[in-house]
Amino acid sequence: MGLVRGMARTAVVAGTATAVSNRVARRQYNRWEAQEAQAAPQQQQSWDAPPPAQPVYVAAAPPPPPAPVEPGDSTTEQLERLAQLRAQGVLSEEEFAAAKAKLLGL
After folding, report:
1. pTM score > 0.90 for this model?
2. Which of 27, 50, 82, 101 is the S-S candidate for 106 at Cβ 3.0 to 4.6 Å?
C-alpha cells in the first residue's frame, strides 16, 4: 500500500506545481502585453497606405561548369589542369571528383 500512496502523492505534487507554474506564466504574459500596449501607441493603419515591404530573396548563382578539356591533351595534363582549378577554388571537391571520374572513365 505504501507504493500506491507514494505515487499518488507524487502525482498531486506534480499536478499542483504544473498548475501554479501555468498560472504564473499566464500572469506574466498578460502583464507584458499590458506594458507593450502602454509603451507603443496604437498605430492606425490607413487603407490607402501601402503594405510593408517584403524581403526579396535572391538565389545564389550556380557554380561555373568545369573547364572544358581539349581532346588533344593527355590525361595527366587534364588532371593537372583540374587540380589547379580545385586549388584556385574554382572547383569544389565534389566537382573535382566528378570531373576526375569522368576523365578516367570511372
Report:
1. no
2. 101
